[in-house]
Design goal:
AB_hydrolase_fold, 260 residues, FSH-like_dom, Serine hydrolase domain-containing protein, two-stranded antiparallel ribbon
């Protein structure tokens, strides 16, 4: 019997953590959710330029994707980051979808730190928006779906005028926490997509556990991807619920306590 083709998903971590930490966080979801996906968790291209609040909770090394000013409007090495990710996707893909998580809150004296933590989901949306405008990934098949957890837009008008110029027509699901200080920016990012699915949860800036209603929503969303004729051989599994806990949940709970 021919082996079933798995959809490859590029998963981008947040501020001063790592692909391994994001993988640990996502593992709190029942494994059946992603069992038919090939989930890829690369590290950021730069070593962390400062302290990570998961030190002592999750082992180093920790990474950054690019650098920025306190208003999150001026970026250093962003072009290099985008070039790296595009090259990575072409060499290691093709990737059917992107998953991005904005990292948990950390203590800092930087005035606008809460505006600086949106890397994983923010980068994912940027790549999709740029590809739709023919600016990047012209030699890679169109990205077909995105999973955004606590995402937001970039603030630089020169980026916004390109990446979010038109409604982004890929299937997207956006996890938005009622207690997340990035709730409003997450709403704004979702509005940049055509017919987004928004899954709300009562928690803060975190990868949430899925209740029955969220499992049902995500399952139906996945089924629509599978049924879409434009997606060809893409296979997305039915989502199952589970009450099982994992080591990732313990790690994240510890991080949230540190951030409190």
């Amino acid at each position: 019997m021919e082996q079933e083709k798995k959809a490859k998903v590029l998963c981008l971590h947040g501020f001063r953590t790592s692909g391994s930490f994001l993988k640990k966080q996502i593992s709190k979801w029942h494994p059946s959710i992603f069992q038919q996906f090939d989930m890829v968790f690369p590290d950021g291209i730069f070593p962390a330029g400062g302290k990570s609040d998961i030190e002592g909770i999750f082992p180093p090394p920790y990474f950054e994707w690019f650098q920025f000013n306190k208003e999150f409007t001026d970026y250093t090495n962003l072009d290099e980051c985008i070039s790296y990710l595009c090259d990575y996707m072409v060499k290691n893909g093709p990737f059917e979808g992107l998953l991005g998580f904005s990292q948990v809150k950390m203590k800092t004296n930087e005035p606008s730190f809460t505006e600086q933590q949106r890397w994983g989901a923010t980068l994912s949306a940027l790549l999709i928006g740029y590809q739709a405008q023919g600016k990047v990934l012209t030699d890679h098949p169109p990205i077909k779906f995105m999973v955004s957890i606590s995402g937001s837009k970039f603030r630089d008008p020169s980026i916004c005028d390109v990446a979010y110029k038109d409604s982004i027509k890929v299937k997207s699901v956006h996890f938005i926490g009622e207690k997340d200080w990035l709730k409003v920016p997450s709403e704004e990012l979702a509005s940049a997509f055509d017919d987004p699915l928004i899954i709300r949860h009562p928690q803060g800036h975190t990868v949430p556990r899925l209740d029955d209603a969220s499992v049902k929503q995500l399952s139906e969303w996945s089924s629509r991807i599978l049924e879409d004729p434009k997606n060809g051989d893409l296979h997305v599994p039915k989502v199952l619920d589970s009450e099982e806990s994992s080591g990732a949940e313990l790690a994240e709970n510890l991080v949230e306590k540190v951030a409190a």
